[in-house]
Each structure stands twice: as C-alpha cells, then as structure tokens.
Amino acid sequence: MTNAEPAPEPPRRGFRTGRLEAFSDGVFAIAITLLVLDIAVSEVAGKHLLRSVIDLWPSYLAYVTSFSTIGAAWLGHNAITEYLERTDAAFIRLNLLLLLFAAFLPFPTRLFADYIRDDNAERVAATFYGICLLLTSTLLLVLWRYAVWAHLVRPDADDEEVGLLTQRLTPGLGGYLVLIAAGLFVPVVAVVGYLAIAIYYIIPFRRLSAGFFPRRRRPPGRDA
Amino acid sequence: MTNAEPAPEPPRRGFRTGRLEAFSDGVFAIAITLLVLDIAVSEVAGKHLLRSVIDLWPSYLAYVTSFSTIGAAWLGHNAITEYLERTDAAFIRLNLLLLLFAAFLPFPTRLFADYIRDDNAERVAATFYGICLLLTSTLLLVLWRYAVWAHLVRPDADDEEVGLLTQRLTPGLGGYLVLIAAGLFVPVVAVVGYLAIAIYYIIPFRRLSAGFFPRRRRPPGRDA
Amino acid sequence: MTNAEPAPEPPRRGFRTGRLEAFSDGVFAIAITLLVLDIAVSEVAGKHLLRSVIDLWPSYLAYVTSFSTIGAAWLGHNAITEYLERTDAAFIRLNLLLLLFAAFLPFPTRLFADYIRDDNAERVAATFYGICLLLTSTLLLVLWRYAVWAHLVRPDADDEEVGLLTQRLTPGLGGYLVLIAAGLFVPVVAVVGYLAIAIYYIIPFRRLSAGFFPRRRRPPGRDA
Amino acid sequence: MTNAEPAPEPPRRGFRTGRLEAFSDGVFAIAITLLVLDIAVSEVAGKHLLRSVIDLWPSYLAYVTSFSTIGAAWLGHNAITEYLERTDAAFIRLNLLLLLFAAFLPFPTRLFADYIRDDNAERVAATFYGICLLLTSTLLLVLWRYAVWAHLVRPDADDEEVGLLTQRLTPGLGGYLVLIAAGLFVPVVAVVGYLAIAIYYIIPFRRLSAGFFPRRRRPPGRDA
Question: What is the ipTM of this complex?
Fold first, then answer.
C-alpha cells in the first residue's frame, strides 16, 4: 500500500458483485422461507390433530426437498460468485433468470404436497415439480458455463478447480431427467430422488467440496 | 495512503447509501418473491390437474411480467445508485415512494391473473396493472432526474453516460401509456406489451448497456 | 495511518452494528412488503371489478399509512444507528422489542382495512391500529433515549444534533394519543391523522432533516 | 500496513462468513416476520370485534414466543459467528440444517394458536411446538460445538468465554424436555415456559452477556 499498488483485488472483482450477491441472497432466503407458508392442516382437523400432523408427511417431504434444493442452489451460487473477478451485463440477466425459476419453486412444492395422494394428479404434480427443479439447476450450470466462457473467472483460479465445479454442477441434470420419467409411474420415489440430488449437492465429499469451496482467494504463492 | 490522499472515494459517496441500498434490495427481493404466492390452482382441480396447471397461463404470464418489471426496476435502481456520489434527504424520501409502488405490484399482478378470463373485469384488471407499472417506472425516472438535478451524481460521471441513462429510462413511459389505452380493448396484448417493455429494460443492447452498467468507477485517467 | 494508529473509527463503532443493522433492515423491509398481501378484492367481484377496486380505498389508505409509518421508523432507526459509536447488550434487546412491534403492524393494518365500514368494529380496529403505531414509535424513542443515556453515541456528535433527534422523535407520541381518542368517534379521521404523523416524520424540514441525517461522520475539524 | 503485516484479520475469518451471515440473517428475519401472517380474526367477527381481538391471546402468546425464540437463535448465531475465524464446508451445511428448522417454526406456531382451545388437540399442538423449538435450539448448540471441535474459533478467543457460550446454550435444552412433558397435561403453561426460555436466552445477565457478546475482537494486549 506504499506505492502504486492500491489493494487491487476488491475493485477488480466487478463493482456490482456486492449488490448482485445481496439481491440474490435475498431472493434465495425469501423463497426458502416462504415454503413453510404452504404447510397447513385442514380446517376440520380438530380431534385428530396428531393424525393430521402425521398425515402431512408429503408437505414435510416437499418442504425438506425444496429447502435442500434452494439451499444447494444458494451454495452453488456462492461457489460461482466466489470465482468471479467481475460480472458483466449478460451474467446479471442470466442471474435474474435463475432467480425467476428459484423464486417460482414454492408453487410446484405446494402442488406436490397437495396432490400426492390423488392417484391421477400426483403424476402431474411430481413431474411438474421435477421440471421446475431441473430448470433451476440447469440455469445454475448455464450461469457458471457463461462465466467461464466470458472470462469472468479470476485469472488465478485453478483450472482443475474450475473443472471440478463444472463436473459438480452437471450430473444432477441427468438425474432429474431420469427421475422425471420415473415420476410418471412412482411419484413419491421421484421426489425422494429429487431430495437425494439436493443432498448430493449439499454434502461435502472431500474432493468435491474443494470445487464448491475454493480455499484460496489470493494468488498462489502468497499463502506460503 | 502515505500522504494527503486518504482513499477519498468511499466516504464521499454519502454515508447512507449502504443502508439505502440494503433496504431497497430487500424490498425489491421480497416483492419479486411474493409474486409466487398468488399462483394457485383452484381447490377442486383434482382429476384434471394437468389442465388446471396449463390453464394457469395468465398467472405465469403475470408472474413473468411482474418479475421482469421489478427486476428491471432493480437494475435501474442499481444503475442510479452506482452514479451517486451521495444521497440527500429528498432522494431518500423519493426512494421510499418508489418502493411504495414497487411493493404494491403483487396486488395488481394477482388481480390481472384472477380476472383475465372474465370479459368485463379483464379490461379493468389490465388497465389497473398498467397504471401501477407506469407509476413505478415513472418514479424511477423521477428519482434519477432528481439525482441529476440535485448534483448527487459523481462529478467524474461522463455527461454522455448520464444522458444515456436518462434516455434509457424514458421511452418505456410512452409505451405504457399506449398499452394502457390498448388494454381497454385487448387486455392480454397489453400485458404481453408490459412484458416486452420490461425485457427491453433488461436486455443489454450494446450502447444502452453502457448506460445501465457504467464501467468506470474511478476518475478517468486512473485506469490507464 | 502512518504509525500506531490503525484506523480506529470502524472497530470503535461496536462490532455488532453491522449485523444488527442488516437484521433490522431485513425485518423492516419484509414487514413493509408483507402489507400488500392483505389487499384483496372479494371473491365475487366479477362484473363490477372497477367498483370493487375503488371500494378498496380503506385498504389503500391502510397500506400507505403503515408503509409510511414503517418507512419512518426505518428512517429513524437509521438516524439512531448513525450516531452510535457502539451497541451494548441492552440496546440489542430493545431493538428486538422494537422489531417485535414493527413486524406486528401488518395485523392491525389488515384489521382496520377489513372493518372500517362496519359501524361498531371500525372504532375497535382504528383504536387497536393506533395503539400499535404508538407502541412502535414509543420504542423507537426509548431506543434513542437509551443510547444517549448509556453513552453509546459517538463522542463527536453535536449536542444540538442529539437534542434535535430527541425533539424529532417525541411529538408524534402525543399526536397518537390524541388521535387514538379521536378514533373512538371518527375512525377514518384518526387513520388519516396516523398517516399525517408518518409523513411528518418522513418529510425533511430544513433543520429537522439535519437531526435525521447528520452530515458529519468524522470528528470536527477534519472536514476543514 | 507498510511491511509484511497486511491486515491479516479479515481474510483469515474465512471468505464465506459474509454471505453465510447475510443469508442466515435473511432467513431469520423473514421467518420472524412471517409469524404475523398467521394472526387473523375469524371472518364473522363483525360486531364483537373487541372480543375477537382479545380472544386472539393465544395467537399473541405464540407470536411473542416464536419471535423471542427466533430472536434468541439469531443472537446466539451472532455470538457463534463472532467467535469464528473461518467456516468450513460442514459448518455451512449444519447452518443450513439449523435454518431449515428455524424457518419451519411459523407452522407449529400457527398450529398452537389455532388449537389451544381445543381440549384434545392442544396437547398435540403444544408438544409439536416444543419439539420444533427444541430441535432449533439443539442445532444451535451442535453448530457451536462443531465450531469448537473443528477449531474454527479464533485462536485469541478466551477459553473462559468459549466455555461460557457453551454453558449459555445448553441449559435451555433440558428446560424444553421438561416443558414438552408438562405440555401433555397443561399445554398453555408449557408455552409460557417456552417463552421464559427464550427470554432467558435474550436477557443479558452480567456474566452471561459476556459470553453472548464478547467485547474483544483484537488479540489481547492490543487493547491496552
């Protein structure tokens, strides 16, 4: 800080990352918290409240699944912005599109919880739910791929780490496709599968977690 | 930081910009996320859930339109505060007024989605929706015009860029007026038009995006 | 910053102000945005939607009144934290109590909007509304008085400014008491009065605005 | 700042604490504010609104109890992150799990308020409520214990302080267990007890407040 080197890191990261992160954090946090509003026992529960509360298990399953999926998307979003040196106009728009789908998730969640015990409707509800989860995950991958393609990633980011994050964000998409198909026959199984994908994204396996949580922020060599 | 030059940029920007931005980001993020609460299939959907989900297209159209409009307002708000050196008391109050209208948008959105298939009511709903969108956009322009008029803009901001942002925020207003009139006859077309205006604000055309996302933050010459 | 004087300003302010402000901003922003959820036309509006939308004026009045009151509380909260050098444990608890009342406001707001046209109920609704607004404003003043009493205010804060903010936060309380009494006879007038108090808090009169938005943050003499 | 001492404090704290705190603050703030949505007088209150408003006391009790519990969890969360030097992948996942339970609290709150006057259902509602509060508090303690175990705590943190925070977070759990059992017989008493636990967490007793609000941030010796 003595000479011509005025702490270049922060300004370089792009001047808008701060508010983009704040706004995205807000939308993720609100969407994840609104999920609870859709859990309700029917008006006439009265005497058999215990049974009513237990019978709500599809609501709990849907709550945990959507909470985990939005939580995983937030973790992924974190990992992505962590690697960014700056953002550009297209990135900010793609990010809005991602948020549009993430903020929409409470609706298919409620639909699934409401119709899971209805023989015909449950297939529709589970499939619709899966498609919405797939779109959210796809846009997260698109956001990351765009960031890499448009050279928004910090130059000091390890190629291996960048590759790991790409690998990490990809396989879930195939999983969703398989489960959406399965959901046409066994809807509950599909939703348990959606939950498994979310947990797969969330659980930090050793190497994978490195991709999600890069340890270094400063250029290599400065750590030593 | 050795001599008389104590990093003057941040303190100059006005000490309250931080919380004003945080509060505004919060309101925009919540308003945009609450939109989903108004999407619901009728209680008796049951057997024909697929049809019910498809029949909700006005809700989806309204969701995307309002999401895009609030998203565009947030982008515009970002662009405005980015140019500010400081805020003043009147700016903060105008900002509250803008948030009052932005936070109100979920109501006309729901109204439009609910009444779009009702021959008489749809005109009222589409017109009311358009007026609310127009008021939100107008206040965003007023906020910016006030900031320029009251010399709140950073002195190093390029005159051309300032003019570009003004140009960028203005034409939508005429568009809304035309579409509100059109909405009295063809409500759905009007709403598609509202969506088009929001997308016009969001999509970064080359030169325009410069107005929305000024690249420089430091005084000219320091980049070289 | 040359010697042993490591930028003492920020650490001194109390290490928790950041999250206290972020959490408070969040609660204010959410409470202010939830207000819109309580505006709804009755299910059977159908043909006469225009009339239904116009007949909702009590909802709009209540929305604007509560929005302005919460907005004013946020401005006052901003002014208070701006003067703080640090927070202490009791301040943080008082702040939670203030948020408890502020976050409660959507309920009396809805009550007023729902019952304003019911001859008996409107008195109850307007009085209850007024009491909740009074409690919120009182706690804001208590918070500020406590901060002054416990010497949490920055030592460089002008005594006159501190006095001005106290003056600024006080008179509304008397106004609420008068209006709550008036509300027993003319409920709508009382609510218009509540709105007037909120606007009085918000509108920046010349000297008063100085109390609300202190210009200096650094010790006197450093500006010269 | 001249030589090899590049302000080590902030980078050391772990690069993700900022967004983890912002996201957590958001979820706590939203969950605490959503509680008000579940307070409503029945549709037919009309003439006897005063009585209806008074009869809502279980809703107010539940509101205050859940508000205090979430507020206490937020304070505890603050105290925990205050001691952290950095976070790791497991900590972030445990934090998500804590938020999953905290964001769920509005549901049992509503359930308790709705069924407290129903002889059979009130036991179920109070027990369910207590279990959810217990799980939230347990996870807060688990989060803190994990942070200590995984050496995420700042090395300059006083052992005594660390022990105090552990002590502070622990006894409530036993209290919940006792009250959950009591709730099977006297549900309202149990809920008043839940409120008492929350207030115990919130009220700053002298020594305990030290555990919740460590005064020092810098290494010992630098204060002198």
Answer: 0.80
What is the average per-residue pLDDT within D160-185?
Answer: 83
**Residue of A156, A150, A196 lying closest to A172 (CA atoms):** A196
Q: Quote the pTM value.
A: 0.83
Do residue C107 and residue D36 have CB atoms under 8 angstroms apart? yes
Enumerate the H helices of chain A as residue ranges.
9-12, 17-34, 49-55, 57-83, 89-104, 106-115, 121-149, 159-169, 171-183, 187-202, 206-212
Q: What is d(CA D169, CA D167) in angstroms, rounded to the nearest whole number? A: 6
Of D26, D96, D125, the CB nearest to A26: D26
Backbone angles phi, psi at D172, to 5 degrees: -55, -35
- Dist. CA C200–CA C190, nearest whole Å: 15
Q: Is C121 on the interface with D (CB under 8 A)?
A: yes
Q: Tell me the C-alpha to C-alpha distance, in Å, between residue C93 and each of C130, D68, D75.
A: 24, 10, 9
C20: helix, strand or coil:
helix
Q: In B84-158, which ranges are continuous DSSP H helix?
A: 89-102, 106-115, 121-149
Query: CB-based contact (8 Å) between B39 and chain A?
Result: yes
Instruction: Please answer whether residues A212 and D89 qualify as being in contact, where contact means their C-beta atoms are separated by less than 8 angstroms.
Output: yes
Best probe of the B interface among C20, C25, C216, by most B CBs < 10 A, is C25
According to DSSP, residue B220 is labeled T
pLDDT digits (tens, 9 = 90+) for B78-135: 888 888 888 888 888 899 999 999 999 999 998 888 888 777 788 888 889 999 999 9
Closest-CA distance of chain C to residue B107, Å: 6
Question: Subunits that touch chain A (at least 3 Cβ pairs < 8 angstroms)?
Answer: B, D
Q: Are C129 and C104 in contact (CB under 8 A)?
A: no
The residue among A55, A42, A47 whose CA lies nearest residue D121 is A47
Which amino acid, D33? T
A160 inside 8 A of chain B by CB: no
Report yes or no: C216 at the D interface, CB cutoff 8 Å.
Answer: no
A50-105 pLDDT tens trace:
888 888 888 898 899 999 999 989 988 888 888 888 888 888 889 999 999 999 99
Per-residue CA distances from A61 to A39, A188, D139, D172 (Å): 11, 9, 20, 28
pLDDT at C204: 62
Distance from the A32 Cα atom to the nearest Cα atom in chain D, whole angstroms: 8
Tell me whether C103 touches chain B (CB under 8 Å): no
User: Which among B6, B107, B115 has CB closest to C49?
Assistant: B115
- Reference A118, options B88, B181, B41; nearest CA is B41
Closest residue by Cα to residue D125 from D177, D178, D184, D61: D184
Which residue in this structure is represented by tokens 């650490």?
A: C11
Q: Rounded to 5 degrees, what angle do the CA atoms C18, B28, A111 make? A: 115
Q: In angstroms, rounded to a whole number, what is the distance separating the alpha carbons of residues A35 and A25?
A: 16
Interval D207-223: pLDDT, tens = 444 444 444 443 333 33
CB contact under 8 A, B11 and C217: yes
Highest mean pLDDT: which range of B199-203, C207-211, D144-148: D144-148
Residue B1 touches chain A, beta carbons under 8 Å: yes
